[in-house]
């Protein structure tokens, strides 16, 4: 059968029309909608469609992005784009990583989550504060086809948290080459250098 077996799979183009943003995180949905602007897509969020939040049982960012995108595509019958992302701190062996949202607890309290990172780093006062954000994007179609892209941005962590423009861990993340945190940066400037912007540029080059 053609297209199966060991043949490389062609990248599938995304046609103009409806696209579900398979995320329940308002900050991410806002950034994703801005990154997709002007591409002829009618963007609907998982929240607008009342889609349930799937349990993130994967062990990698890509696995979790794929399971969220597939769940939304299956339930909506539309192509769906999911983002699984997180902050990886070198001195903490890559934590919180795929558990970044879960460190915010049931109330999704990122002051608490940033405090947890600070407390754990306090035990290693001489360790470098290097960290990076990762963003895996998965684009899934209702017939099961899926495409993946992964982006990254490197930086260092600073305390106290600075700025109120971003979301999640943005106030403690100082990207390399900048003297303001993601929390102090306007959204278009953040999108230009962020893990999410990086993954999006790869996706745009491939599927449009
Ligand atoms: O799964 P969905 O519904 O998309 O929403 P979520 O918030 O649970 O998203 P993730 O599972 O991907 O967890 C990612 C967490 O990592 C953090 N994060 C990801 N991208 C970030 C960014 O650009 N700035 C700050 N924090 C970010 C933020 O705390 C997120 O809650
Ligand atoms: Mg999540």
Account of the 3D structure:
- The longest helix has 16 residues.
- Strand 1, helix 1 and strand 2 form a beta-alpha-beta unit.
- Helix 4 crosses helix 5.
- The protein is α/β, with parallel strands linked by helices and 208 residues long.
- The chain has one domain: Maf protein (Alpha-Beta Complex).
- The radius of gyration is 18 Å and the shape is globular.
- The protein is 29% helix and 22% strand.
- The structure holds inosine 5'-triphosphate and magnesium ion.
- Inosine 5'-triphosphate binds next to strand 3.
- It catalyses: ITP + H2O = IMP + diphosphate + H(+); dITP + H2O = dIMP + diphosphate + H(+); XTP + H2O = XMP + diphosphate + H(+).
- Keywords: Hydrolase, Magnesium, Metal-binding, Nucleotide metabolism, Nucleotide-binding.
- It is an enzyme of class 3 (hydrolase).
- This is dITP/XTP pyrophosphatase.
Primary descriptors:
binds inosine 5'-triphosphate, single chain, globular, 6 strands, binds magnesium ion, alpha/beta, 5 helices, 208 residues, six-stranded mixed sheet, Maf protein
Fold topology:
Elements: E1 17-21, H1 26-36, E2 41-45, H2 61-76, E3 80-89, H3 110-122, E4 130-140, E5 146-157, E6 173-175, H4 187-193, H5 195-207
Parallel strand pairs: 1-2, 1-3
Antiparallel strand pairs: 3-4, 4-5, 5-6
Bound molecules: inosine 5'-triphosphate and magnesium ion.
């Amino acid at each position: 059968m053609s297209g199966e077996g060991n043949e490389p799979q062609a990248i599938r183009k995304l046609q103009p029309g409806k696209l579900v943003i398979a995320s329940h995180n308002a900050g991410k949905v806002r950034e994703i909608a801005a990154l997709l602007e002007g591409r002829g897509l009618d963007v609907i969020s998982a929240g607008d469609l009342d889609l349930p939040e799937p349990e993130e049982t994967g062990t990698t960012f890509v696995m979790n992005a794929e399971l969220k995108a597939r769940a939304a595509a299956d339930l909506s019958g539309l192509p769906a784009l999911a983002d699984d992302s997180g902050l990886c701190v070198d001195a903490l062996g890559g934590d919180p990583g795929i558990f970044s949202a879960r460190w915010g607890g049931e109330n999704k309290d990122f002051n608490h989550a940033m405090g947890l990172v600070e407390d754990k780093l306090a035990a290693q006062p001489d360790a470098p504060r290097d960290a990076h954000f990762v963003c895996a994007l998965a684009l899934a179609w209702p017939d099961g086809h899926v495409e993946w892209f992964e982006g990254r941005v490197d930086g260092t962590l600073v305390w106290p948290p600075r700025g109120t423009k971003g979301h999640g861990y943005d106030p403690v993340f100082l990207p390399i080459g900048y003297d303001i945190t993601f929390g102090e940066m306007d959204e278009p400037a953040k999108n230009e250098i962020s893990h999410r912007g990086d993954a999006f540029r790869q996706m745009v080059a491939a599927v449009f």
